[in-house]
Design brief:
Pfam families: LytR_cpsA_psr
Structural class: alpha+beta
InterPro entries: LytR/CpsA/Psr_CW_biosynth, LytR_CpsA_psr
Largest sheet: 6 strands, mixed
Number of strands: 14
Protein name: Cell envelope-related transcriptional attenuator domain-containing protein
Family: Belongs to the LytR/CpsA/Psr (LCP) family.
CATH topology of one domain: Nucleotidyltransferase, domain 5
Strand order of the largest sheet: 11-6-1-2-3-12
């Protein structure tokens, strides 16, 4: 298992045509600079290719004999796909396996667009065929219990959330919180407008959230604090799961912008390293390459974010049925499915 993305490489620049009446020394200098630039680009392209192949070897889900062959008509560059993306809190201090970030993403290669539905962690979930009513973030850990569930964890997660949103889920990717922090650090941090003062301390697991309201650059630890913040024991206001979902989308938006920037492209090696160390997925390498080729340059304007909302009735969030049906319709529309 495993997952993630990489930037496009550029080809060798064409040599400038020799213009008459220009000093020969100036022309030679220009050609030398172009040669150096060309070698630099070629070297960077080779380095990127090397890092990408290392990422695929480490992350992609292939069998022991070699790569899984994906039929051409089923590649992400041809056919719309759905991925279940999970953010996993597996810190040693907490001894938990809670998926506090849950997103279902449909992608369409014809329009180079995506729809992202965020499910609050405390959502009350009940799905036919699974004898369990619990919070959305608890099922990943529950499916690891072989006494209750014989199928692989990934298969159960795809089936469960696919039934809930009424769309087929092709793949699942799990990102641990260290991976989130490492990717943010690899791009040099992200600019975020923190919406409120945030202060929370928990000596049991080492949590120490201390953020001030306002526009600022956050490093990996601070960005994780920003998306995780829920309550305070130091006098600042509390946040709901719905506000956390909005922050997650904001961070993803800013991270995508940073990765596509010149600064992000230059730091591609560190990004790949952060991804490979902290992400697991069941996407085969051939399919992962197709995803990268198709969606690497996706514009944020072509990503539709759909946060599910509802009402809090302890201990659950109960999702509004009209919103749930609207989210299902948007996912299906991105896949090119009719109601």
């Amino acid at each position: 298992m495993r997952l993630m993305t990489s930037p496009k490489t550029t080809g060798m620049p064409s040599r400038a045509k020799k213009k008459p009446k220009k000093p020969r020394k100036l022309l030679r200098l220009f050609l030398m600079l172009m040669l150096i630039a060309g070698l630099g680009i070629a070297g960077f392209a080779g380095y990127t290719y090397f890092k990408l192949n290392g990422l695929l070897d480490e992350v992609a889900a292939d069998d022991k004999e070699g790569n899984v062959v994906v039929p051409k008509e089923d590649l992400a560059e041809v056919k719309p796909k759905t991925i279940l993306l999970l953010g996993l809190d597996s810190r040693k201090e907490t001894h938990t396996m809670l998926t506090d970030v849950i997103m279902v993403i449909t992608m369409n290669p014809q329009t180079k667009s995506a729809t992202v539905v965020s499910i609050p962690r405390d959502t009350r979930m009940e799905v036919t065929g699974f004898n369990r009513v619990s919070k959305a973030n608890s099922y990943y850990a529950a499916f690891h219990n072989k006494n209750d569930y014989s199928d692989p964890v990934e298969a159960n997660m795809k089936s469960f959330f696919g039934q809930y949103l009424d769309v087929p889920i092709d793949y699942v990717s799990v990102v641990n919180f260290n991976g989130f922090k490492d990717v943010i650090n690899a791009v040099g941090g992200i600019d975020v407008n923190v919406d409120m003062d945030m202060r929370y301390v928990d000596t049991a697991d080492g949590t120490d959230i201390d953020l001030k309201k306002g526009q600022q650059e956050l490093n990996g630890d601070e960005a994780l604090d920003y998306v995780r913040y829920r309550k305070s024991n130091k006098g600042t206001g509390a946040s709901s799961d719905l506000e956390r979902n909005q922050r997650q989308q904001e961070v993803i938006h800013q991270l995508l912008n940073k990765i596509k920037s010149v600064e992000g492209v230059v730091k591609v090696g560190g990004i790949f390293d952060a991804v490979g160390n902290n992400i697991e997925t069941d996407i085969p390498s051939q399919q992962l390459t197709s995803f990268i080729k198709t969606y690497m340059g996706i514009n944020n304007d072509n990503i539709e974010y759909v946060p599910l909302e509802g009402t809090w009735r302890s201990p659950y969030i109960r999702i509004d049925e009209e919103q749930l049906e609207a989210a299902k319709s948007k996912l299906k529309a991105r896949l090119g499915q009719s109601e």
